[in-house]
Amino acid sequence: MRIYREKNYEAMSQTAANIVAAQVKVKPDCLLGLATGSSPVGMYGVLAEKFRRGELDFSKVRSVNLDEYVGLAAWHPQSYRYFMRENLFSHVNIEPSNTHLPDGTATDPEEECRRYDRILEELGRVDLQVLGLGHNGHIGFNEPGDIFEKSTHVVNLQDSTIQANARFFDSFDQVPRRAITMGIASIMRARCILLLVSGESKAEIVKTALTGDITPRVPASVLQLHPNVMVVGDEEALKYL
Ligand code: GLP
């Protein structure tokens, strides 16, 4: 595990963007695993800037996202499809047909999970998987539980997760209670993982996840078993490491 300790959010976003940019340059048709949340927003901004300056070409890049809320359509401002369009896809020359997210409006969410797994299977191994970290140790929307869920599945979000994400909605009640998320095995299959952590509120869980017991009670702890993880964080989030 390599740890990049940066002064602040801006610096970590630059470093993370440099890592993604290097991946795109080395392998123009790479498969990127993408994440939402506030941690990667700055990184996406830097990537968009690199594209504007002519330093990056996304025309052959393919992407899969980790998760999506059940019930939110692509046009909903809090859907992850909308987030990706706003923060990255509409700013670079990635082909919309090369971008993949679970469909939150599928009439049968379980069937949608199987469809998403087939897409993951067809696309092959993710070259670089971007991850954020929930305060309870979740990655994607893999919440703490008794087992590491392998494949794409529907999750009931924990109250703490709903609470954490309520800041993006008008009220707690509007946050969807369920989501579709890629499973832990799919995340672990990536050749390389880029974990982004920012802010003091993440410091405790960063330490627990990266140095504590490996347990499905802390889903991100499984990353200790991955051979190629880069953690990019600001000083506050990494202060106990
Ligand atoms: C959400 C997302 C996760 C993300 C997490 C942390 O729950 N499903 O993929 O990593 O939030 O978000 P943030 O980066 O805003 O702290």
Give structural notes:
- The protein has 241 residues and is of the alpha/beta class.
- 31% of the residues lie in helices and 17% in strands.
- It has a 7-stranded parallel sheet, sandwiched between helices. The chain has a 3-stranded antiparallel sheet with strand order 4-8-7, with helices on one face.
- The two termini are 12 Å apart.
- It binds 2-amino-2-deoxy-6-O-phosphono-alpha-D-glucopyranose.
- The site of 2-amino-2-deoxy-6-O-phosphono-alpha-D-glucopyranose has 14 residues, from helix 5.
What would a concise description of this structure say?
The chain has helices at 9-26, 41-52, 80-87, 109-123, 159-165, 184-188, 203-211, and strands at 2-6, 31-34, 62-65, 67-69, 99-100, 128-131, 153-156, 178-181, 193-197, 229-234. The protein has 241 residues and is of the alpha/beta class.
Helix/strand-derived class?
alpha/beta
Beta-sheet strand percentage? 15-25%
Query: Unreliable segments (pLDDT under 50, ≥5 consecutive)?
Result: none
Distance between the termini: 12 Å
Output the number of helix runs: 7
Rough outline? globular
Helix content estimate: 25-40%
Order of helices and strands: EHEHEEHEHEEHEHEHE
